[in-house]
Design a protein that fits this description.
Helices cover about 45% and strands about 15% of the residues. It is built from nine helices and six strands; from the N terminus they run E-H-E-H-E-H-E-H-E-H-H-E-H-H-H. Bound molecules: NADP nicotinamide-adenine-dinucleotide phosphate.
């Protein structure tokens, strides 16, 4: 069955699943039948996502920790395996943004950006891919950003990190293609989340100039992600699936 969208029997990890896009992805994957492990720095928000899933009849646990720290990643993966068995779906969604003119960006700011937005996803992949190799099946989705496609002033360190994620996606996809593991990325842009609300972006003004006259919703990203991690998307790998209401047509 290569048209199957069900995730029944599968175990998924969603990093940054306590808020915004990550929470919507966690809810959607659980709705589609996966047992979901919600990883987040913020333990309370991760638990909130878990409550939402279990109240809707799904299966989930929360793991609190930094998804860019090797020891946290290893312990969260172990907790997940103990609860739900081998992990064959990984969504690298945790990330930070940054709005600073290039000449004012400090070395520490660059290090933090690259650590959370690039090193974290790479370490999570290294931790979880052995489960996928053992199963002969796996799905990885990395959340990048439309800023990697268009460029974004005062976001050089951020867009560089997300451009890195797009290139990492393609390279890992090639390395894993013969093993039953697909690796894709979704570059959101202008999605109504706590991250966007905290940013200098004027949401109403941006909505006015966007083709659909509205920001994206976290659910818009989540349904695309659910497709990419399904059986149905098995021949799609290394792909950048733009979900942006027509704002960017690369
Ligand atoms: P969000 O509302 O800020 O959610 C991100 C979540 O990730 C938060 O719960 C955050 O925890 C958590 N997190 C941050 N660093 C972490 C770490 N090191 N380990 C574990 N969890 C961590 O952001 P969002 O808008 O949903 O963004 C999700 C992803 O989409 C990010 O990768 C972002 O770059 C990307 N994106 C978003 C947009 C947009 O328009 N919203 C556009 C392009 C790309 P805390 O709250 O405790 O920090």
């Amino acid at each position: 069955e290569n048209n199957d969208m069900s995730l029944q029997g599968k175990t998924a990890v969603v990093t940054g699943g306590g808020s915004g896009i990550g929470r919507a992805i966690a809810l959607q994957l659980a709705k589609d039948g996966a047992a979901v492990s919600v990883w987040d720095l913020n333990g309370d928000s991760a638990k909130e996502t878990v409550t939402m899933i279990t109240e809707a009849g799904g299966k989930a646990i929360a793991c609190t920790g930094d998804a860019s720290a090797a020891d946290n990643i290893a312990s969260s993966a172990d907790t997940t395996r103990k609860a739900f068995g081998p992990i064959t779906i990984l969504v690298n969604n945790a990330g930070i943004s940054g709005f600073t003119p290039f000449m004012d960006i400090s070395e520490d700011m660059i290090d933090r950006m690259m650590s959370i937005n690039i090193k974290g996803p790479m370490l999570c992949c290294q931790q979880i891919i052995p489960d996928m190799l053992e199963a002969g099946w796996g799905r990885i989705v990395n959340i990048s950003s439309s800023s990697a496609q268009t460029g974004a002033a005062i976001m050089t360190h951020y867009s560089a990190s997300k451009g890195g994620i797009v290139a990492f996606t393609k390279s890992l996809a090639l390395e894993m293609a013969a093993k039953g593991i697909t690796v894709n990325n979704i570059p959101p842009g202008f999605v109504d989340t706590p991250m966007l609300r905290k940013s200098p972006v004027d949401i109403d003004k941006q909505a006015e100039v966007s083709p659909m006259k509205r920001p994206g919703s976290p659910e818009d990203i989540a349904t695309a992600c659910a497709f990419l991690v399904s059986e149905a998307a098995g021949y799609i790998t290394g792909h950048t699936l733009s979900v942006n209401g027509g704002r960017v047509m690369p």
